Amino acid sequence: MSRRLLFFLLIIASATAAATPDPDACAGSRIHIRQLPARFNTDLLRHCDTAFPLADHPSATPSCSSLANHGLGPRTHNRTRSWYRTDARLLEPFFHRRLLDHHCLVDDPARADAVFLPYYAALDALPFVLEPAMLNFSGVHGVPLAQFLAGDRPRVLARRHGHDHFLVLAGPAWDYSQPPDTDPRLWGSTSLLRRPEFDNFTFLTLESRAWPWQEHAVPHPTSFHPSSLPRLRAWIARARRSRRPTLMLYAGTVSKPSRPNIRGSILAECANRTLDVCNLVDCSGACALDPIRYMRPMLKARFCLQPPGDTPTRRSTFDAIVAGCVPVFFENASARTQYGWHLPPGRYDEFSVTIPKDAVVLGGVQIVETLAAVPEEEVARMRERLLELAPRVVYRRHGSEEMGMDAVDIAVEGALRRIRRRVRALEDGRPEALYSLDDDDQVI
């Protein structure tokens, strides 16, 4: 081959390569945010001081103040750009605000791979769970939304029978899964997740049920919402170098339970113990909205106890991860079976300790002795792995610079992955694969 011909072929190859379009960065990830009437979202925030009391304790942050910073709440102090008094029940407007910045939004739902419903479901449920006069109507929670979706541009819903729809529910799924025909109605819960109109939707909840074909758990929001990568790294560095003279810490209700349970066992073990063995942080009041109250003690503790309460999961688990305090679980439902998109289910032994609650309550196993027997170098390895995972469970502040995948990014990617799989099964005529959970456990 002559040099002239070789040169000519190289020119053609270069031109062809230049003409080849770049891969579609949004392939499979296009999201359409459904336009809902304000009564389903923003109007619910207008009554924060009356119909929708977000603060349950007199010393807590005032209800309307919790709405500041798009649901992050007020700053813990004026100079901070990373710490807020965050009410977890405002996770829905926060997700809504973050998704408005998603890089693959489309106006045409026919071009979308997924449809996000900005429905503030937990806020809409408050009248049913707080007003005695509304208790008997809790079975109709979500009916107005179902009627709207069926009547307004019905093709959006009908195109994939709702399998491409997802939304956020700022609470445990159990609180929204009461059968609609229950009589008498149970206080504190609604039937949103039992509505047949929503059977094919994906719900991002703070705690999922044991058969999460419909929902998937996302991390409880902490008060830490960094605005930049340097601030995130600075905090992790602080947690890494923090001196930890206390063996274990429990932050929660410290009143003695009426019957034997794991919390009672913890309180009994900590009774009369010195601070270097066990530290109790009383969170009977508004502890969740006062991060200084528990975060400083967590930075000084090697292990943070995470006993189940009314439901298995706790916000304190994620506070502990952010603080580099190794979480101690007493049942798998507290985390291992919940957060497969954010934390590696098969590798919990790398960053946590599990002590079966029955072994403690009924078997005489001592928590203090078990934790004291863990070698210090093993604790250090667990803490390091924990801090590596911390950015995955943090909700960065909206409008902040890119700092890798945070809890929202991972949750949205997980929902998209699940939706893509379901749509493929739907299109291929494989109904048995629609509710497979193969997407839940990710390699991290």
TrEMBL record:
Q: What InterPro entries does UniProt report for this protein, alphabetically?
A: Exostosin, Exostosin_GT47
Keywords from UniProt, A to Z, are: Glycosyltransferase, Golgi apparatus, Signal, Signal-anchor, Transferase, Transmembrane
Bilayer topology term:
Single-pass type II membrane protein
Q: Give GO MF terms, alphabetically.
A: glycosyltransferase activity
Q: Where in the cell is it found?
A: Golgi apparatus membrane
Domain named Exostosin GT47 is located at 26-368
The record's Pfam families line, in alphabetical order, gives:
Exostosin_GT47
Glycosyltransferase recorded as keyword? yes
What does UniProt give as the signal peptide span? 1-17
What are its GO cellular component terms?
Answer: Golgi membrane
Per the record, the similarity remark reads: Belongs to the glycosyltransferase 47 family.
- The entry's protein name is Exostosin GT47 domain-containing protein
Q: What species does this protein belong to?
A: Lolium multiflorum (Italian ryegrass)
Q: What is the lineage of its organism?
A: Eukaryota, Viridiplantae, Streptophyta, Embryophyta, Tracheophyta
